[in-house]
């Protein structure tokens, strides 16, 4: 039996007195896609930041691909290496070209040979259809192009689990599609992923599981059709009404 890509049980997190994640448990099988949704402030970003070690938590257990966060620096390092995060705001280095944005982490952080990094970067930029933008700087790109660069950059280190935090929320409507299309291709390719998004069409086409959070708690976890067509709780129904 192979380990789950992500396994969380009884996770609780407080920011000072504020209880922001309440007894969160979930499992993501290898190759599965989970869409995480819920009102603003419900704890979605905090949860996925816990999954890749950007945030700590006070109670509960978390493991990626069988590796548990056990308080050791080695486990934290491995969990960070197994997960890759794509942010709403791209977070590209403005003073580096597209190619260098992809290569700097692997070459300087992980000791990847430069030739290998460049070859891999070219490959990934082709996959996200940006081969012609390789020498540009982030300021010369559209939002949709910048987000596709950010996705390619995250893929440089071959994460076992990809985490997306509202990847299309900062984009003009006409650019949302090109980013979702790249994400769907990754999904079809078998990438395990957790996507925080309110894009219902994407969730319907791609998600194995939709998880709805409110006030730090998982309220529903079900398949997308059931969730969007017949949410079981009033809070989820209200949320679906608002995003429809
Ligand atoms: P979401 O992504 O669903 O909008 P967040 O995970 O960003 O929600 O936030 C959950 C709650 O935690 C909110 O009440 C937010 O104000 C609070 N919060 C988030 N980050 C911090 C922080 N660094 N310090 C204190 N409170 C925070
Ligand atoms: Mg958020």
UniProtKB/TrEMBL annotation:
Keywords: Amino-acid transport, ATP-binding, Cell membrane, Membrane, Nucleotide-binding, Plasmid, Transport. It holds the Pfam family ABC_tran. SUPFAM superfamilies: P-loop containing nucleoside triphosphate hydrolases (SSF52540). The keyword Ligase does not apply. Its main location: membrane. GO terms for cellular component: plasma membrane. The keyword ATP-binding applies. One of its GO terms (molecular function) is ATP hydrolysis activity. Coiled coil: none annotated. Residues 6-240 form the ABC transporter domain. It is a peripheral membrane protein. SMART domains: AAA. It is found in: Cell membrane. Belongs to the ABC transporter superfamily. This is Amino acid ABC transporter ATP-binding protein. It comes from Paroceanicella profunda.
């Amino acid at each position: 039996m192979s380990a789950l890509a992500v396994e969380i049980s009884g996770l609780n997190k407080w920011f000072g007195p504020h209880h922001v994640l309440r007894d969160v448990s979930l499992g993501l099988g290898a190759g599965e896609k989970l869409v995480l949704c819920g009102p603003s402030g419900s704890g979605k970003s905090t949860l996925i930041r816990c999954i890749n070690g950007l945030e700590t938590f006070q109670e509960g257990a978390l493991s990626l691909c069988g590796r548990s966060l056990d308080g050791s620096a080695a486990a934290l390092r491995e969990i960070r290496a197994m997960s890759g995060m794509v942010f709403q705001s791209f977070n590209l280095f403005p003073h580096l070209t597209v190619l260098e944005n992809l290569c700097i982490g692997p070459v300087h952080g992980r000791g990847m040979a430069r030739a290998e990094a460049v070859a891999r970067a070219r490959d990934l930029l082709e996959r996200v259809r940006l081969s012609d933008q390789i020498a540009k700087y982030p300021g010369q790109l559209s939002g949709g192009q910048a987000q596709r660069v950010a996705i390619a950059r995250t893929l440089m280190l071959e994460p076992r689990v990809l985490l997306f935090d509202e990847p299309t929320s900062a984009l003009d409507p006409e650019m949302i599609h090109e980013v979702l299309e790249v994400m769907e291709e990754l999904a079809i390719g078998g990438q395990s992923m957790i996507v925080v998004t309110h894009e219902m069409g994407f969730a319907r086409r791609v998600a194995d599981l939709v998880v709805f959070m409110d006030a730090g708690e998982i309220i529903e976890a079900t398949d997308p059709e059931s969730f969007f067509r017949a949410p079981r709780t009033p809070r989820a129904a209200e949320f679906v009404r608002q995003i429809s």
